[in-house]
């Protein structure tokens, strides 16, 4: 079992930056693919970025060059550094931990709100 707690969301002006953190409790954090997803009102939840246990990253086209995902396995934490924020980035951001073993292990945090003011 993995529990995920996000923090770092809030109100930011367009063009500004925020860093989200996701602290994980439970065992075997290092072997999970950690991801950040977001969901804006009336829209489906979408992948923002994810990072494998080996550090390989993947980004949505809309955030490439502006967002950076990283992880600190010693601290059981994954980060999302967001810069050049715009109104399209406003959403609830969710942290996800995923791995496939004998079954699928898929855990979600409660989400943190990011609001971008113009």
Helix-strand layout with pairing:
Blueprint: E1 3-7, E2 10-13, E3 18-25, E4 33-39, E5 46-51, E6 57-59, E7 67-72, E8 77-82, E9 91-100, E10 104-108, E11 112-117
Low-confidence stretches: none
Terminal-residue CA separation = 40 Å
What proportion of the residues form beta strands (DSSP E)? Answer: over 45%
Shape estimate: globular
- The number of distinct helices, counting runs of at least 4 residues, comes to 0
Number of strands: 11
SSE run: EEEEEEEEEEE
Rg result: 14 Å
Mean pLDDT: 96
Q: Percent of residues in helical segments?
A: under 10%
Give a quick account of the main beta sheet: strands, pairing sense, barrel closure: 7 strands, mixed
Structural class: mainly beta
Keywords:
four-stranded antiparallel beta sheet; single chain; mainly beta; seven-stranded mixed beta sheet; about 120 residues
Description:
With 118 residues, this protein is mainly β. It contains no helices and eleven strands. β7 (67-72) and β8 (77-82) form a beta hairpin. The model has no long low-confidence stretch (mean pLDDT 96).
Task: Please provide a brief summary of the model.
With 118 residues, the chain is mainly β.
